[in-house]
């Protein structure tokens, strides 16, 4: 299922880019299409790459790497090769300072701790997610990174050559809006930010009820985002494809039904910005633990335990 969805969305975005080649970038049709269609489509591709990073499109790992590069094309900038190791480290090192690049840095939490600061973060959060990982730690540059760059540059060149710079501007704008004030972008904040103050007992090391640090969303936007809202389920079983996460939730409902969850990603963004008790510091943070995943040179054996099961969606 994943591969067919990706093919359809990539085709949709290229078609929209070509169709808008003679449309002004600051016109309402261009901006409206970029927000409603483009941002939704590119958010879908972000999460397709997330799914593919767990080897859930094909059996062969290399086929997944190559297909992720293909899914990357309408995004406009190369990122799929770097995303995978950072994301798998996020799974192995959830909340670990210096390893989990999903965790806001201390500077972000300090300087953006206001309504305006949080509004700025939500507006430009795609840039934070793109730049932050490189500031936390560097990945080795491998053949798949080079392949990602070459394919993306060539694709962008061909699009400009035959459809003009406006077509590429549409794809870049779509990517920016996908990670900005867009309903589907609410999942970035909803997944791991703690919105409710925990009881004092939950802060104790010996507590049997630790602070929840992963939150699910079971609403209709999952249809557009590879069921990423089933986030507790995904973190518990990252090798289960998106098509089977609702079934997993049903089978293990006694473990998931009582957990805190979000009802709306739009409300998540609104509350994050306006609630003075919520901010970038509202994350469970660990000083140590976990380990890097994917921090090896291309061609070297995969470290034991870092392989993803080759389930296919």
Low-confidence stretches: 295-313
Shape: globular
Structural class: mainly alpha
Give the % helix: 40-55%
- Give the neighbour order of strands across the main sheet: 1-2
Task: Report how far the terminal alpha carbons are from each other.
Answer: 5 Å
Tally of DSSP helical segments: 14
Radius of gyration from the alpha-carbon trace, in angstroms: 19 Å
Can you lay out the helices and strands and say which pair or pack?
Blueprint: H1 2-19, H2 28-53, H3 61-72, H4 80-92, H5 106-111, H6 115-123, H7 125-136, H8 143-163, H9 165-178, H10 186-190, E1 216-217, H11 231-236, H12 245-251, H13 253-256, E2 261-262, H14 265-274
Parallel strand pairs: 1-2
3D architecture notes:
The chain is mainly α. It is built from 14 helices and two strands. Strands 1-2 form a two-stranded parallel sheet. Helix 1 (2-19) packs across helix 9 (165-178) and helix 6 (115-123) runs antiparallel to helix 14. The longest helix has 26 residues, at 28-53.
Provide the descriptors you would attach to this structure in a database record.
disordered C terminus, two-stranded parallel ribbon, 313 residues, mainly alpha
Quick structural overview:
With 313 residues, the protein is an all-alpha fold. The protein contains 14 helices and 2 strands, in the order H-H-H-H-H-H-H-H-H-H-E-H-H-H-E-H.
């Amino acid at each position: 299922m994943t591969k067919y969805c990706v093919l359809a969305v990539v085709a949709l975005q290229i078609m929209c880019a070509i169709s808008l080649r003679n449309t002004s970038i600051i016109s309402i049709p261009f901006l409206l299409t970029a927000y409603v269609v483009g941002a939704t489509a590119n958010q879908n591709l972000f999460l397709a790459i997330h799914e593919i990073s767990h080897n859930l499109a094909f059996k062969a790992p290399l086929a997944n790497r190559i297909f992720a590069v293909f899914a990357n094309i309408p995004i406009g900038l190369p990122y799929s090769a770097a995303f995978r190791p950072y994301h798998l480290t996020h799974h192995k090192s959830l909340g670990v300072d210096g390893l989990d690049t999903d965790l806001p840095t201390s500077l972000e939490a300090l300087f953006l701790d206001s309504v305006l600061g949080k509004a700025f973060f939500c507006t430009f959060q795609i840039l934070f997610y793109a730049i932050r990982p490189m500031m936390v730690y560097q990945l080795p540059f491998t053949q798949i990174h080079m392949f990602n760059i070459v394919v993306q540059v060539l694709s962008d060149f061909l699009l400009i050559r035959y459809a003009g710079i406006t077509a590429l501007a549409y794809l870049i704008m779509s990517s920016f809006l996908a990670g900005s004030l867009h309903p589907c972008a609410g999942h970035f904040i909803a997944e791991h930010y703690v919105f409710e103050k925990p009881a004092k007992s939950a802060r104790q090391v010996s507590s049997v009820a630790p602070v929840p640090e992963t939150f699910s969303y079971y609403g209709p936007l999952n249809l557009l985002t590879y069921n990423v809202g089933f986030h507790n389920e995904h973190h518990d079983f990252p090798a289960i494809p998106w098509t089977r996460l609702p079934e997993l939730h049903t089978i293990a409902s006694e473990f998931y039904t009582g957990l805190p969850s979000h009802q709306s990603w739009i409300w998540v963004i609104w509350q994050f910005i306006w609630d003075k008790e919520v901010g970038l510091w509202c994350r469970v943070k660990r000083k140590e633990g976990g380990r890097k995943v994917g921090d090896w040179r291309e061609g070297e054996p995969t470290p034991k335990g870092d392989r993803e099961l080759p389930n296919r969606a």
